[in-house]
Amino acid sequence: MGIFDILRMGKVIAGTVKGVREQRSLAQDLVALPMSEFVSECLRNLNQSAGNWEGYSRSPNPAAAVLSKEKQLPGELVEFYQECDGFAPVHGEFPATILPITELRLGADYKPSLSARLTAFWNEYGNDSEKPGMLSILPPDNLAALATHSADAYIRPSLLDFALPLCEPAGDDFVVLLLTGVGENLPMGTVLEVEGGSGTRYPGFKSWLGTKASLFGSMASRFGTAMGSPS
Questions:
Q1: Which pTM does this prediction carry?
Q2: What separation, in Å, do the N-terminal and C-terminal C-alpha atoms of the chain show?
Q3: CA distance 220 to 147
């Protein structure tokens, strides 16, 4: 590799680090907002997609408080459903289509169950986890860990059947909230985003949604992507 190749690679790495820092800063700003502002700001950032998609927040379910208690939802999710009844696409797909509160059910209640989906994926493509039969969980804010696929926690697929999917599962990709704590790194209320056989952990609902929204908001800021606007 020549000197100019090294310099170009250095610029790419520096640009990546800068972009990640900008995204993290925006995510922190979003998470710090009160829930009413958090919901609207997350939607605004998610909709900065040059018209590729558009989402909106459903009107709150009048029975949200009762349903939240019945389903034993953690505080951040209770507040979210008091503000809206999840996110939905205006048309086509949307990267954070959050289920209405009445449609929240355990991973075991899906057909096939979440554990069965994950096992089927491993049977076809293999499991890269360092621990056979376990799902590797990566930290969200550690670039080195993400680049090297270095997990800081592992769970059995069966645990996903007792977790709460926040979005409709798509194949082996799903977002779940843990209703049961699993060790120091995965307390109750942790959100896991599972993609292709591994998962990334977030300390709570606001952290997960704020991070996802900040990805699109920071990209639009950096590259001048045209903003979509809710109708």
A1: 0.84
A2: 51
A3: 24
**Quick one: tokens of 180?**
């049961």
Task: Tell me how far apart the alpha carbons of residues 190 and 179 are, in angstroms, rounded to a whole number.
Answer: 8
CB atoms under 10 Å from CB of 222, counted, come to 13
Per the document, the length of the chain is 231
**Helix (DSSP H) and strand (DSSP E) numbers for the chain:** 7, 8
Tens digit of each residue's pLDDT (9 = 90 or more) over 165-174:
999 999 889 9
- In this structure, what are the phi and psi dihedrals at residue 165, rounded to the nearest 5 degrees? -60, 130
Angle at 229 between CA 226 and CA 231, to 5 degrees: 150
Alpha helices, H only, the chain: 3-31, 35-46, 64-71, 75-83, 114-125, 143-148, 205-223
